[in-house]
Design a protein that fits this description.
The chain is of the alpha/beta class and 251 residues long. The chain folds into three domains: 30 residues, no CATH class; 33 residues, no CATH class; 182 residues, Rossmann fold (3-Layer(aba) Sandwich), CATH 3.40.50. Helix content is 30%, strand content 26%. It is built from eight helices and eleven strands. Strands 7-6-5-8-9-11-10 form a seven-stranded mixed β-sheet, sandwiched between helices. The chain has a four-stranded antiparallel β-sheet with strand order 1-2-3-4, with no helix packed on it. β8, α7 and β9 form a beta-alpha-beta unit. The protein starts with 8 loop residues before the first helix and ends with a strand.
Length: 251
């Protein structure tokens, strides 16, 4: 066993440099965060198969599902797997509420929210014009008038300041390229006392058959929402495989 107190100063320095090199090599081999992108984000040496390599608060951001996957959003099995009716009923909406469905996709949840806010409206936000075109066609077919498509960007949902009572994100937040910037913009769009609801597959459960980066733990979500100034209110776990987590913007 090496006893450092007997090493000369230059010998101790050599040992410490060697240990540091071994640690750095191990981090690079494992693909851990090694390069700073900015003060907020880092970059893995190698992206995971279902990730983009970009790291936020220790979490690698997942790849975005493109508009080519629109059919998967409308799959018939989703009713049983995700119980969307339970999600919508668990939000405690008022008839006059303005709801932003962030990452609305084809409007799967937007159209389920609309009947609950007859004197309000649903702002269906997505960054893919192709998704909004599908949503527009479905809106006409369903004769729904209080769902408004909104084209956002990957840093801004393009919503007016203090205009929204609830922002809902269903299996979308983990794919945000710029989660900090996007959430700060969402917080600005919330009215004082407004809420954020996130539905994410449970990252704590290895038996939930979803790709690793497309799941999130409650601990990680709470950490990321706290950073943008949101206060955790409750977590509802009545869904088969997902958390429903509610946060509030303090007045």
């Amino acid at each position: 066993m090496v006893r450092f107190r007997f090493l000369p100063v230059h010998g101790l320095a050599i040992v410490l440099i060697g240990l540091l090199a071994l640690i750095c090599n191990a981090c690079a081999f494992a693909g851990w965060e090694t390069t700073a992108i900015s003060e907020v984000y880092g970059q893995r040496s190698f992206a995971s198969p279902d990730g983009i390599g970009k790291v936020y608060l220790g979490r690698e951001i997942a790849q975005v599902m493109g508009h080519q996957g629109a059919g998967w959003l409308e799959r018939s099995s989703r009713m049983q797997e995700e119980r969307p009716g339970l999600v919508v009923n668990g939000l405690g909406l008022q008839p006059t509420d303005v709801v932003a469905d962030i990452g609305a996709g084809t409007g799967y949840f937007s159209f389920r929210l609309a009947p609950l806010v007859p004197q309000g409206k649903v702002l269906a936000v997505d960054i893919q014009p192709e998704m909004l075109e599908i949503l527009h066609d479905l809106r006409q077919a369903k004769h729904i008038t209080n769902v408004e498509p909104v084209l956002g960007s990957n840093t801004d949902p393009h919503l007016p300041t203090e205009s929204v009572d609830l922002a809902l994100m269903v299996d979308a937040y983990h794919e945000f390229d710029f989660p900090y910037e996007m959430m700060m913009a969402i917080v600005r769009a919330l009215k004082p006392g407004g809420r954020v609801a996130l539905v994410e597959y449970r990252g704590e459960n290895p038996f939930v058959a979803i790709k690793r980066l497309h799941k999130m733990t409650q601990k990680q979500v709470r950490q990321e929402m706290q950073v943008v100034g949101l206060t955790w209110q409750e977590t509802q776990d009545f869904l088969p495989q997902q958390h429903l987590m509610i946060f509030r913007k303090m007045a």
